[in-house]
Amino acid sequence: MFWFDWMSLGIVVVVAIIQTVRTSKAGGMGLTLFEAAGLVAAAVGANSLAGSLAQAIGVQPVVSLIVIFLIFAVLAFIFAHWLFGVTGWSFESLDGLLGFFWGVVAGWVIAHMVLRIIIMSQGENGAVAEVMANAPIAREVYSFRTWNALMALLFKARLGPEFNPDVN
After folding, report:
1. At CA 128, angle to CA 74 and CA 131, rounded to 5?
2. 78 lies in a domain?
3. Dmax of the chain from CA atoms?
4. Pick from 129, 110, 111, 109: which is nearest to 119 by CA?
5. How sure is the predictor about 142, in pLDDT bands with cuts at 50, 70 and 90?
6. Range of the domain at 137
7. What is the number of structural domains in the chain?
8. What is the arithmetic mean of pLDDT over 15-29?
9. For residue 143, how many other CB atoms are within 10 A of its CB?
10. Which tens digits make up the pLDDT trace of 146-163?
11. Is position 164 within any domain?
């Protein structure tokens, strides 16, 4: 395992633990659910807008990716706090387990974005990108291979969503 495997694993575990504690202090798993969903939306938005914004204002794509992700993440956290205040979602005895699960999702997104930033800053032929195929944890965090394989299997069994994950 490489240093970025350990970094990815550390980010996911630390964020999951923090979110589990925050779930118990908040009094419901809704806060961590909304934050995880907001981080996913922030990552998707940042990845889709970074290239065009960087070209429009004349900065490196990695800089625009970082700035857009941070702005969207802060807005997502504000919206998550407001939404949790309105709904107060809680599953009582399952809050700890669900908070940990949503923490893993949030940590995964953060680790994915850190890896994406590292690879973008080094280039596609950089040190991390070259050995990513041999890094089991970082490869999974970066490329979602297991998720894509599961969706392909469910699609073939007609149990998955009504789209083909093999087609972009």
Report:
1. 140
2. yes
3. 51
4. 129
5. confident
6. 3-156
7. 1
8. 91
9. 14
10. 777 777 777 777 665 566
11. no
Place of tokens 């992700």: 69
Distances (CA, A) of 17 to 99, 129, 151: 9, 29, 28
**Domain assignment of residue 166, yes or no:** no
Total residues belonging to the chain? 168
Q: What is the pLDDT averaged over residues 69-77? A: 96
Domain annotation covers residue 81: yes
The Cβ of residue 101 has, within 10 Å, a number of other Cβ atoms equal to 19
CB 54 within 8 A of CB 121: no
Per the listing, tokens 């599953």 go with: 91
Give me the amino acid identity at 26: A
Residues ≥6 apart with Cβ < 8 Å to 112: 43, 141, 142
* Dihedrals phi, psi of 29, to nearest 5 degrees: -80, -5
